[in-house]
Amino acid sequence: MKRPLSIRVRFLLVSLIAVPLALALAAIFMTSIFSANLEQRLEEELKGHINTLAGSIRLTADGAIEQPSGLMDQRFTQAYGGLYWQIGDAAQPALFRSDSLWDTSLSRPDDLPDDGAVHRYISEGPEGSRLIVLERQIMISAATGLKPVQISVAADTKALDEASRGFALEIFPYLAGLAVFLIGASLVQVIYGLKPLADLTTELDRIRERHSGRLNGALPAEFEPVENAVNRLLDTQAQSLAKARTRAGDLAHGLKTPLTILSTDALTLRESGQSDMADEIEQLVQLMRGHVDHELARSRIVANADMRQSDADVREIIGQVVKTLQRTPKGEALEWHIEIGEPPNVPLDTHDLRELVGNLTENAVKWAKDSVRIVWKNDRLMISDDGPGVDPEKIGDMTERGVRLDRKTPGTGFGLSIVKEICEAYGLTLSIENRQGSGLMVSVMFKNIDGTARTA
Question: pLDDT tens digit string along 108-126?
Fold first, then answer.
């Protein structure tokens, strides 16, 4: 199944889409407001020109309209200068007009404004230009009565359009910079906001590495339900493991007493002359004890490295095992060579490492002639003896459950199989080979499958 996009990527994609879109809409609104304000100011200017024209209109004695004067804006005098005026009546709509109109006139709508009211409309101007036209009808007293006069003033919208485009181009760099800032701020917000997830991962790694037993409560309040659930899970796991080990120990101890009684009965039978039956019972007792010890050891092995209770000190564990074996009759007669460099901590449960080292060392003591060598070097534990060694064809059978290559030597045949199970649980590499000359060497490489050292 394909892994979904990460939360960071999702937030970043949303920002990359939403921020430019929002700023584009903002640019449209700002440009629209800017254009509306310019247009409003232009209309106020046109209203001023209408009022100026209205104040300059005079009638002759026969009631005719005189040519207005007094308009100072030079654009009225330039052909197609962008600013135009026109005065007329009902009979002649373009009785007078500005020089800027040249050979054209302003078109008028069918509906005329009320007296004094300003009528606004859009019209086509010279050379296909677009005009904003303000028109006002005033009544002037004449000898024959009130005479209606229409005054129209228009301005080309080209200047407005250019100003709007210029405004948009001017604010673009600022909006682009704002977009970069907002996207960067969103990224920082995501990183900072999701930092508790990284802290949670770090705390879980500390628990996995057995540097801590619980989440320490340093996470934000939103993570409190997750923290409580994880802590409950850890408590349940620890309790289940402790109960399983306790039950296995109780079972083993409960079986040892009947086995001891059977051993005593076998001794009684041997003393009474029933050696065959005594041998059979002793053989069964030895086999049962081997099974009990094996299952007891297996029950204490964790399912995987993440379930260990703590990391183990190699130097300390080897020292304890060697000290115990040196007190045995065989161990006292052997010469011990121990070479351990920097004392490493390995991510194995202390009990499991003790079980591994103990079984390998006991096997070396059992077969050693004069000496046992224990070496830790380059993340590899090597335990060897100077005994007779093993037939190369049978080395692969040594880690099978209950296999004993020499039945004359006391043992159950479960030691190396337990070592194999521990190595499989932790992903360690176990190898067995004959030494040059004589003896056997068993080595365990404390590395992951991907080559990462298992040392902590």
Answer: 776 666 666 888 888 888 8
